[in-house]
Amino acid sequence: MTSVEQREDPYAKRPWLSSYPAGVPAEIDESSYSTLVNVFNASVVEFADRTAMESFGATLTFEELGRAAGAVAAWLQTRGLRKGDRVAIMSPNVLAYPAILFGVLLAGGVVVNVNPLYTPHELEHQMNDSGARFLFVFENFAYTAAAAWPQMKIERAIIVKPGDLMGLRGAIVNFVSRWVKRMVPAYRLPGCVGFTQVLQAGAEEPFKPPPVEPDDIAFLQYTGGTTGVAKGAMLLHRNVAANVEQSWAWLKPYLADKPLIMVTALPLYHIFGLTACLLLVVKTGGCCLLIANPRDIKGLIATLRKSPFTLFSGVNTLYAAIADHSAAKSVDYSNLLLTISGGMSTQEVVAKKWKALTGKPIVEGYGLTETSPIVTINKPTISEFTGGIGYPVPSTEISVRSPEGEPVPIGERGELCVKGPQLMGGYWRRPDETAQALTADGFVKTGDIAVMAPDGLVKIVDRLKDMILVSGFNVYPNEVESVLVEHPKVKEAAVIGVPHEHSGEAPMAFIVARDPSLSREELRAFAHEQLTSYKIPRSFEFRESLPKTNVGKILRRALREEFLARKKIADEGRGGSVRTEIRR
Question: Is the pLDDT of residue 358 over 70?
Fold first, then answer.
């Protein structure tokens, strides 16, 4: 008998249901969703004349998107794609992306989303692990595919250009990018074809829709690899379709009958952007305002000035960058209905700046790749940032548990565990890792330390593996970072635990400063006003930038590994321990 069975789980009573907004059901109707193919086809018919996608001023209606996706599906099927075969997409947010994605699903294939910033080694691992047969690659990154080509088993590469599906405007864009060589590094991919050729050929070829079932895999969504080798989460059609339905059930009472134009700056190859932007908007007949390069804040703001929008989905670093930009005040935010944040912890100081800029609070949510991804979200009607990740969406169970797997009392810290129809089918070809990720009663262990309030509001304290143990006391990097970034001279902060001869571990802070006059002594004094002594970083290192994931999440692991490597070299050179250097 497991410990979970021995102790009653207080979370089984689902205390969060009493806090649900009016009109939000406790459970979603399983008959209301089946496959993403059905969701897409229904929207193409119901919203045929509506604008589905916008990119660089060009648009696609749902009917046009459906036609393009059908051409992709026919082309793949004619070239031997069988149900369950994997097809990779390596591209930023451009009009071709959703057409390819839905085309693969219509053909019964499995989408393998790829970060276009991957190195050849990373691409090789993902392609060979997934067994992808076809690779749709954005031309600007085709050189990466070319470098990895000899080590991969891809049958054919399809080159996507920035202006594809943009009509005459796109032809001009492609002509310019072709001749400005520095925009497209040289590459050689044997047998590759252009995406426009796929559309032209597919439009003329017959297509027989295969039977796609709810239990079929829709996506092999690879984890970021921040805790080891990237592995593919098998997201079934019913998993993702259920999560879209769960999300809409939560938001519908607030957004029903309102114009839905989503600023889609989150990359579609990331699970957050995929579900919260693309799939949710397609289901509801809204429009995705595609942002190809969210790192170009000046260009993003220029787009926001020209194109109307009502919804915004992003991460903490993106909101911070926009709020800090001098041109951000020139944007009209009067039609903004909802700002959603996830992917990483949202800092209160950033939320305050966003509210001051737009007049709208940041509504924080939480999820992970293994849950398709949305688990919790705050009420869309909040007037101020809550600091919590919200309440479990309908049909979702959560349990906060001790290291021994026992549920802790409500109000106490423990590992957040999640169960629901959005939970993945497992890791691709990794049954052992699947078993390790799940509890005996079918919950996925998130690795996040959380606490639930009596009303069901959940707050993430930190990552389990990032927690710092100082003389037996727990220090959570999120808490320390949130204090440091409140200093007006601090732009970004990351805190890690480093070895310490007396306390076992000690906090160390990496700082990106706004003002070069910022000193260690000034920061330490500031932190002392809000943190107890053992939580205050023993050392500070000033940086021009911090390592981040593709969605802007700071990689503490990379900083920790770099520090330990430096320490090892120093120890070997000095024949003993080394004191952390304080660098300006």
Answer: yes
Question: What are residue 194's DSSP bridge partners?
Answer: 159
Q: How many CB atoms lie within 10 A of CB 22?
A: 7
Token reading at 466: 């990032």
Distances (CA, A) of 438 to 372, 379, 416: 16, 29, 12
CA distance 490 to 475: 21
Q: Domain end: 167, 197, 212, which one?
A: 212
Distance CA 474, CA 579 (A): 23
In a domain, 76, yes or no: yes
Which CATH number is 538's domain given? 3.30.300.30
167: left (phi over 0), alpha (psi -120 to 50) or beta: left
pLDDT digits (tens, 9 = 90+) for 431-453: 999 999 999 999 999 999 999 99
Q: Is the pTM of this model over 0.85?
A: yes
Domain boundary among 163, 194, 212: 212
Residue 132 belongs to domain spanning: 61-212
545-556 pLDDT, tens digit per residue, is 999 987 888 999
Q: What spatial distance separates the first Cα and last Cα of the chain, rounded to whole Å?
A: 56
Enter the DSSP assignment of 277.
I
Backbone CA torsion sign across 179, 180, 181, 184: negative
Selection from 263, 453, 270, 417 nearest residue 344 by Cα: 270
